[in-house]
Design a protein that fits this description.
The protein is α/β, with parallel strands linked by helices. The chain has 11 helices and 12 strands.
């Protein structure tokens, strides 16, 4: 389907150096992908060590901001538990400046208790309520006019006479909110987000969640939300090549065909078109083997042109 925006998404907690991420980001930029996004996690979910270890999302994006020139950069998504909202607003604004205005902030509540325990990060209750305040603060700081101050009195956070500096280049800087929640998530997206994303969901679930968010946005008089989905992607020019790539990321061919955009490039295009028909105008292709630059090139050659207007 022409006009679809395709972005690359990676999971560096599985084990990735900065240089490996840089190589993939620069190649994605060269090949014409619109965005390069990364998860914000400090631990793998499968119990493996993830050697050589995790990298910090915003430190990584700061580096990429200086070593790329056109591709958009961001998180899918930053955990609200990892950073206080004031310092997060400063970090994201600075990286946006470093990139010349190419950053987007995906922000969520934080959910993976084990990574908090592993690195001594508090894992408080009421994380959705905290996220609501964090979104108020981050967007409020950025929107505060120069020369004025920002104050906030919440249940979890209080700010007094903040100058609301620094400012991002973009005004407003795009905020991405995502998830499967049926009530609070759509309401937060309608209030704060430029984009709503649903990750790794079947097409029917994706369509239903888009409808909930669209209704919440309409209640606020909004019709400008971008709707996106994230999907694991694994393709091969031949069945043997696809099977080998699936094995490398620890997935069974038929399982990933069912749950991802996988198989031949034509099969992947067919699956991605189903998400477009469900209402997505942007898709994040999750690549689990970030060292396989040939895989990225195949996607760029056989899949990307099918969605460019």
């Amino acid at each position: 389907m022409a006009g679809m925006d395709l972005r690359i998404m990676i999971e560096p907690q599985l084990g990735a150096t900065y240089d490996e991420q840089l190589a993939l980001a620069k190649e994605a930029e060269r090949l014409g992908f619109n965005g390069f996004f990364r998860s914000d996690h400090y631990l793998t979910m499968d119990g493996t060590a993830g050697a050589p270890g995790p990298t910090d999302a915003w430190i990584t994006l700061a580096g990429l901001a200086r070593e790329t020139s056109t591709i958009r950069l961001g998180t899918m998504v930053t955990a609200g538990t990892f950073r206080l909202p004031g310092p997060l607003a400063i970090q994201v604004a600075q990286v946006d400046q470093m990139s010349g205005g190419r950053v987007e902030l995906g922000l969520g509540s934080g959910w993976f208790a084990a990574e908090h325990a592993a690195y001594g990060i508090p894992f408080p209750p009421n994380r959705m309520a905290r996220l609501a305040e964090q979104l108020d603060i981050v967007t409020g700081l950025w929107a505060t006019p120069h020369g004025e101050t920002f104050n906030y009195a919440g249940e979890f956070y209080n700010l007094t006479d903040s100058p609301g500096l620094p400012k991002p280049v973009q005004a407003p800087l795009p905020v991405i909110i995502g998830g499967h929640g049926k009530k609070k998530t759509p309401e937060l997206a309608a209030k704060h987000a430029a984009e709503f994303n649903i990750p790794f969901a079947p097409v029917d679930n994706t369509r239903a969640q888009f409808d909930r968010v669209r209704a919440a946005a309409a209640a606020r008089g909004r019709t400008d939300l971008v709707f996106s989905a994230a999907i694991t992607t694994c393709v091969g020019a031949s069945e043997a090549e696809f099977t080998k790539r699936a094995a490398t990321i620890g997935r069974e061919p038929e399982e990933i065909r069912a749950n991802g955009a996988a198989g031949t490039p034509a099969e992947a295009v067919e699956k991605l078109n189903r998400y477009a028909e469900a209402g997505a105008t942007r898709l994040y292709l999750q690549l689990l083997d970030i060292t396989d630059l040939d895989h990225l090139a195949l996607i760029a050659e056989e899949i990307l042109p099918q969605f460019q207007s």
